[in-house]
């Protein structure tokens, strides 16, 4: 099993060296933030080379996948198990809301009251209504579970003062995370030529976000009554069908626009193996789930076989 940890040990050494004080010879322990960054920087495209016969595990189903781009990795090693056009620019639709949610958790107060005002109310794919008031936490739940676009606008205005300033926050965070092929132009993923990413960058974002316990709790919720401040509530069921249909799935986010096609960022765990997958531009709403399940099954088979042989 030696080879399985080579990448992680190397990156750990680099990060620990960066933590060394200029005035002290010793090194400090990693902060939680440094640990998160170290983990998402673990990307290894060579681990499986020659180690196992990938073709024998692929079967016929991989060849039938309609998605235009994807990346599937093993989280513990950063091993790239499968990819297609993973570094090519694509629209990402509502997967965008992962960054909006992350920034709200990191910069907001969950008990703040947010009103749906006229400048954030576009009445498109939305269940919030003009004049409605929510706590930030409940508005985040509505945005992530049912992909409410106006909820994202309202959060952006509350956190950034206006949407443009919030997009600056999004792009600063993307740069910090090393998402070098990503640009955010709105907080919800509605069609915009300047709102784009890659499967590779979105896997990076997924791994970072899911290491926040509140983020993971939100995107892992199958259904919930989201309350307004006046006591009314909206029943919300998560648009991510894999939470209910795929064993071990515990996130993350769906997306769809005509430009982006049907998209899904997902994470699943079985037998101490955690896989992250971002699938972009699948042909239909149902195929994004079936194709993600095919790839995840393949990934679990690959990693189990690798562990048995090494």
Number of strands: 9
Q: How much helix, percentage-wise, in residues?
A: 25-40%
Distance between the termini: 5 Å
Order of helices and strands: HHHEEHEEHHHHHEEHEEEH
The average pLDDT is 91
Q: What topology, given as strand order, has the largest sheet?
A: 2-1-9-8-7
Rg estimate, integer Å: 20 Å
Total of helices: 11
Helix and strand content put the structural class at alpha+beta
Low-confidence stretches: 1-26
Sheet-strand content, in percent, reads 15-25%
Shape field:
globular
Largest sheet: 5 strands, antiparallel
Brief descriptors of the model:
single chain, 310 residues, alpha+beta, 5-stranded antiparallel β-sheet, 9 strands, globular, disordered N terminus
Task: Describe the model.
With 310 residues, this protein is of the alpha+beta class. A 5-stranded antiparallel β-sheet has the order 2-1-9-8-7, sandwiched between helices. A two-stranded antiparallel ribbon has the order 3-4. A two-stranded antiparallel ribbon has the order 5-6. The longest helix has 25 residues, at 285-309. 44% of the residues are buried. The chain has helices at 6-18, 32-40, 54-58, 97-107, 136-146, 149-160, 163-176, 199-209, 213-219, 242-245, 285-309, and strands at 69-74, 80-84, 113-115, 133-135, 223-227, 233-237, 249-257, 261-270, 273-282.
């Amino acid at each position: 099993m030696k080879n399985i940890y080579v990448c992680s040990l190397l990156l750990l050494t680099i990060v620990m060296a960066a933590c060394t004080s200029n005035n002290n010879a010793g090194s400090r322990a990693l902060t939680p933030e440094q640990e998160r960054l170290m983990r998402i920087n673990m990307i290894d495209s060579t681990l499986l080379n020659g180690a196992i016969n990938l073709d024998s595990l692929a079967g016929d189903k991989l060849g039938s996948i309609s998605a235009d781009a994807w990346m599937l990795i093993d989280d513990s090693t950063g091993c790239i198990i499968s990819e297609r056009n993973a570094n090519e620019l694509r629209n990402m639709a509502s997967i965008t809301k992962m960054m909006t949610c992350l920034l709200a958790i990191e910069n907001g107060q969950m008990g703040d009251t947010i009103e749906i005002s006229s400048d954030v109310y576009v009445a498109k794919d939305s269940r919030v209504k003009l004049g409605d008031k929510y706590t930030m936490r409940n508005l985040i739940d509505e945005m992530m579970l049912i992909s409410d676009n106006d909820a994202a606008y309202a959060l952006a205005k509350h956190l950034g003062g206006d949407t443009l300033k919030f997009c600056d926050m999004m792009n600063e965070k993307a740069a910090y995370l090393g998402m070098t092929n990503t640009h955010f132009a709105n907080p919800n993923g509605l069609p915009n030529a300047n709102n784009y990413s890659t499967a590779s960058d979105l896997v990076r974002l997924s791994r970072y976000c899911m290491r926040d316990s509140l983020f993971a709790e939100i995107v892992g919720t199958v259904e919930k009554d989201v309350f307004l401040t006046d006591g009314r509530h909206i029943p919300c069921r998560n648009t991510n069908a894999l939470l209910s249909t795929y064993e071990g799935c515990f996130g993350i986010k769906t997306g769809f626009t005509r430009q982006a096609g049907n998209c899904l960022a997902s994470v699943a765990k079985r037998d101490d193996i955690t896989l992250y997958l971002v699938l972009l531009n699948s042909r239909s709403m149902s195929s994004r789930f079936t194709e993600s399940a095919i790839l995840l099954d393949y990934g679990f088979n690959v990693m189990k076989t690798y562990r048995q042989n090494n």
